[in-house]
Protein backbone atom coordinates (compact mmCIF):
# COMPACT_ATOMS: atom_id res chain seq x y z
CA UNK A 1 0.00 0.00 0.00
CA UNK A 2 2.72 2.53 0.86
CA UNK A 3 5.40 1.26 -1.52
CA UNK A 4 3.97 3.31 -4.38
CA UNK A 5 4.21 6.51 -2.31
CA UNK A 6 7.74 6.20 -0.92
CA UNK A 7 10.94 7.26 -2.62
CA UNK A 8 14.48 6.35 -1.63
CA UNK A 9 15.50 5.66 1.95
CA UNK A 10 12.60 5.46 4.45
CA UNK A 11 12.67 6.36 8.15
CA UNK A 12 9.74 5.74 10.50
CA UNK A 13 8.82 7.91 13.49
CA UNK A 14 6.19 6.53 15.90
CA UNK A 15 4.51 8.68 18.55
CA UNK A 16 3.51 5.75 20.79
CA UNK A 17 1.31 7.81 23.13
CA UNK A 18 -0.73 9.11 20.21
CA UNK A 19 -0.96 5.62 18.72
CA UNK A 20 -2.05 4.21 22.11
CA UNK A 21 -5.15 6.44 22.05
CA UNK A 22 -5.67 5.83 18.35
CA UNK A 23 -5.92 2.11 19.10
CA UNK A 24 -8.71 2.80 21.59
CA UNK A 25 -10.70 4.53 18.85
CA UNK A 26 -9.94 1.76 16.36
CA UNK A 27 -11.07 -0.89 18.85
CA UNK A 28 -8.05 -3.11 18.21
CA UNK A 29 -4.36 -3.11 19.08
CA UNK A 30 -1.41 -2.73 16.76
CA UNK A 31 1.31 -5.37 16.83
CA UNK A 32 4.67 -3.63 16.64
CA UNK A 33 6.17 -6.89 15.34
CA UNK A 34 3.65 -6.98 12.48
CA UNK A 35 4.09 -3.25 11.91
CA UNK A 36 7.81 -3.77 11.42
CA UNK A 37 7.11 -6.68 9.05
CA UNK A 38 4.66 -4.48 7.13
CA UNK A 39 7.33 -1.80 6.67
CA UNK A 40 9.89 -4.45 5.65
CA UNK A 41 7.47 -5.89 3.09
CA UNK A 42 6.56 -2.47 1.70
CA UNK A 43 9.96 -0.77 1.75
CA UNK A 44 12.41 -3.67 1.47
CA UNK A 45 16.08 -2.68 1.56
CA UNK A 46 15.10 1.00 1.58
CA UNK A 47 13.76 0.74 5.14
CA UNK A 48 16.11 2.57 7.46
CA UNK A 49 15.73 3.50 11.09
CA UNK A 50 12.46 3.10 12.96
CA UNK A 51 12.04 5.27 16.05
CA UNK A 52 9.47 4.77 18.82
CA UNK A 53 8.86 7.50 21.38
CA UNK A 54 7.17 6.27 24.54
CA UNK A 55 6.72 7.51 28.09
CA UNK A 56 7.47 5.09 30.89
CA UNK A 57 6.02 4.76 34.36
CA UNK A 58 8.34 3.27 36.98
CA UNK A 59 5.26 2.08 38.86
CA UNK A 60 4.35 -0.18 35.90
CA UNK A 61 7.14 -2.77 35.58
CA UNK A 62 5.15 -4.68 32.92
CA UNK A 63 6.24 -1.96 30.46
CA UNK A 64 9.68 -3.57 30.37
CA UNK A 65 8.26 -6.44 28.30
CA UNK A 66 6.96 -3.92 25.73
CA UNK A 67 10.27 -2.03 25.64
CA UNK A 68 12.24 -5.28 25.29
CA UNK A 69 10.00 -6.37 22.39
CA UNK A 70 10.64 -3.04 20.63
CA UNK A 71 14.39 -3.41 20.98
CA UNK A 72 14.32 -7.07 19.83
CA UNK A 73 12.51 -5.84 16.72
CA UNK A 74 15.26 -3.26 16.09
CA UNK A 75 13.24 -0.16 16.88
CA UNK A 76 15.26 2.75 18.23
CA UNK A 77 13.43 3.43 21.48
CA UNK A 78 13.32 6.87 23.07
CA UNK A 79 11.86 6.94 26.58
CA UNK A 80 11.30 9.31 29.44
CA UNK A 81 9.39 9.08 32.68
CA UNK A 82 5.75 10.12 32.45
CA UNK A 83 4.86 13.32 34.31
CA UNK A 84 1.84 13.64 36.57
CA UNK A 85 0.39 17.12 36.16
CA UNK A 86 -2.27 18.53 38.46
CA UNK A 87 -5.19 19.89 36.44
CA UNK A 88 -7.45 20.80 39.36
CA UNK A 89 -7.67 19.72 42.97
CA UNK A 90 -7.63 15.93 43.00
CA UNK A 91 -7.53 15.70 39.19
CA UNK A 92 -4.30 14.75 37.44
CA UNK A 93 -3.27 14.27 33.85
CA UNK A 94 -0.41 12.07 32.72
CA UNK A 95 1.92 13.63 30.16
CA UNK A 96 4.79 12.15 28.22
CA UNK A 97 5.11 14.32 25.15
CA UNK A 98 7.96 13.65 22.73
CA UNK A 99 7.35 16.38 20.16
CA UNK A 100 10.79 17.92 20.64
CA UNK A 101 12.66 14.59 20.70
CA UNK A 102 10.97 13.36 17.53
CA UNK A 103 11.68 16.66 15.80
CA UNK A 104 15.36 16.53 16.83
CA UNK A 105 15.73 12.98 15.50
CA UNK A 106 14.05 13.94 12.22
CA UNK A 107 16.33 16.96 11.77
CA UNK A 108 19.50 15.13 12.89
CA UNK A 109 18.82 12.30 10.42
CA UNK A 110 17.41 14.40 7.56
CA UNK A 111 20.36 13.73 5.24
CA UNK A 112 19.89 9.98 5.65
CA UNK A 113 16.30 9.58 4.42
CA UNK A 114 14.14 10.62 1.49
CA UNK A 115 10.76 9.59 2.91
CA UNK A 116 9.54 9.98 6.48
CA UNK A 117 6.62 7.96 7.77
CA UNK A 118 5.04 9.54 10.85
CA UNK A 119 2.63 7.51 12.96
CA UNK A 120 0.78 10.26 14.79
CA UNK A 121 -2.14 12.56 14.23
CA UNK A 122 -0.83 15.32 16.49
CA UNK A 123 -0.97 18.76 14.89
CA UNK A 124 2.10 19.73 16.93
CA UNK A 125 4.10 17.90 14.24
CA UNK A 126 2.84 20.18 11.45
CA UNK A 127 5.93 22.45 11.54
CA UNK A 128 8.39 19.55 11.18
CA UNK A 129 6.28 17.99 8.41
CA UNK A 130 6.26 21.34 6.62
CA UNK A 131 10.03 21.73 7.04
CA UNK A 132 10.73 18.22 5.76
CA UNK A 133 8.59 18.89 2.69
CA UNK A 134 10.40 22.20 2.08
CA UNK A 135 13.64 20.21 2.14
CA UNK A 136 12.40 17.83 -0.55
CA UNK A 137 11.34 14.94 1.67
CA UNK A 138 8.21 12.88 1.07
CA UNK A 139 6.08 12.58 4.19
CA UNK A 140 3.51 9.87 4.81
CA UNK A 141 1.22 10.21 7.81
CA UNK A 142 -0.41 7.15 9.37
CA UNK A 143 -3.17 7.57 11.94
CA UNK A 144 -6.93 7.10 12.20
CA UNK A 145 -10.09 9.10 11.73
CA UNK A 146 -10.79 11.30 14.76
CA UNK A 147 -7.09 11.15 15.74
CA UNK A 148 -5.61 13.05 12.83
CA UNK A 149 -5.43 16.80 12.42
CA UNK A 150 -6.65 18.23 9.14
CA UNK A 151 -3.42 20.21 8.96
CA UNK A 152 -1.29 17.03 8.93
CA UNK A 153 -3.45 15.47 6.23
CA UNK A 154 -3.12 18.58 4.07
CA UNK A 155 0.64 18.85 4.58
CA UNK A 156 1.42 15.19 3.94
CA UNK A 157 2.16 13.59 0.59
CA UNK A 158 -0.07 10.73 1.63
CA UNK A 159 -2.35 10.01 4.59
CA UNK A 160 -3.04 6.37 5.40
CA UNK A 161 -5.83 5.41 7.77
CA UNK A 162 -4.51 2.62 9.99
CA UNK A 163 -7.96 1.02 9.83
CA UNK A 164 -7.12 -0.05 6.27
CA UNK A 165 -4.09 -2.00 7.53
CA UNK A 166 -5.91 -3.98 10.22
CA UNK A 167 -5.45 -7.35 8.51
CA UNK A 168 -1.70 -6.73 8.29
CA UNK A 169 -0.84 -5.11 11.65
CA UNK A 170 -3.45 -6.17 14.22
CA UNK A 171 -2.19 -7.73 17.43
CA UNK A 172 -3.87 -11.11 17.89
CA UNK A 173 -3.60 -12.93 21.21
Automatic annotation (TrEMBL):
Transmembrane segments: none annotated. GO terms for molecular function: RNA nuclease activity. Signal peptide: none annotated. It comes from the Bacteria. Coiled coil: none annotated. It holds the Pfam family NYN. Residues 9-162 form the NYN domain. This is NYN domain-containing protein. It comes from Candidatus Nealsonbacteria bacterium CG_4_10_14_0_8_um_filter_37_14.
Amino acid sequence: MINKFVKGRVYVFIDAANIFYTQKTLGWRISYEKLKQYFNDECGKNLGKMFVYTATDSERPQQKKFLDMLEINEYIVRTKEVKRIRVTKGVYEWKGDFDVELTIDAMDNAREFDTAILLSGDSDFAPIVKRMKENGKKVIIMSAKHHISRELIELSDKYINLKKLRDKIEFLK
